[in-house]
Amino acid sequence: MAQQTSAGRRYMRAFISGFFVAVPVTVTILDKLAYVARVEGASMQPFLNPDVGAQCDVVLLNRWSVRNYQVQRGDIVSVVSPRNPKQKIIKRVIGLEGDFVRTLSYKNRYVRVPDGHLWIEGDHRGHSLDSNCFGPVSVGLLHGRASHIIWPPNRWQRIKPSLPPNREPVNAEEEDE
């Protein structure tokens, strides 16, 4: 009986010490490497949350890949909302710094994306608060790049960069027209 009590205590001590090591390591990994986020709303339909009223998609945000602000056109990214710093939004990168972008409803028909900024848009035009509402977004607001859909299971997939039709940057010559 005494041996069982001693073994139980050793097991409990090992569990507790492992717990106090695992929690900080997990928090560090989630802060620096990857983060899981639930995508709510219709702004990224049809790619994310394709079924209205069904479960929300859950994505894996790769934080490591954006540590040097290196994203490409077509990436789906999470950024701190320029309108509400307590909220994060998920949108598609349409233009990088230096690109000329044809806007959909911004105050100017064409915009040159300033240095240190991105032009982001939701896939569901007209149902998205994005750069067409608030303009280019600072790369300092970048939070992560969506790399995989991890929930629901029937939608598991790697997310590859792709631009919607007719949303690629324009040449500077087109802007003068």
What is the topology?
Blueprint: H1 2-32, E1 34-38, E2 58-62, E3 76-80, E4 88-95, E5 100-102, E6 110-112, E7 117-121, H2 131-134, E8 137-138, E9 142-151, E10 157-158, H3 172-175
Antiparallel strand pairs: 1-2, 2-9, 3-4, 3-9, 4-7, 5-6, 7-8, 9-10
Task: Name the descriptors.
alpha+beta, eight-stranded antiparallel beta sheet, two-stranded antiparallel ribbon
Task: Characterize the structure shown.
- The protein is of the alpha+beta class.
- Helices cover 22% and strands 27% of the residues.
- Strands 1, 2, 3, 4, 7, 8, 9 and 10 form an eight-stranded antiparallel sheet that branches. It has a two-stranded antiparallel ribbon with strand order 5-6.
- Strand 5 and strand 6 (110-112) form a beta hairpin.
- The longest helix has 31 residues, at 2-32.
- It is elongated.
- Residues 172-177 have low confidence and may be disordered.
Brief overview:
With 177 residues, the chain is an alpha+beta fold. It has helices spanning 2-32, 131-134, 172-175, and strands at 34-38, 58-62, 76-80, 88-95, 100-102, 110-112, 117-121, 137-138, 142-151, 157-158.
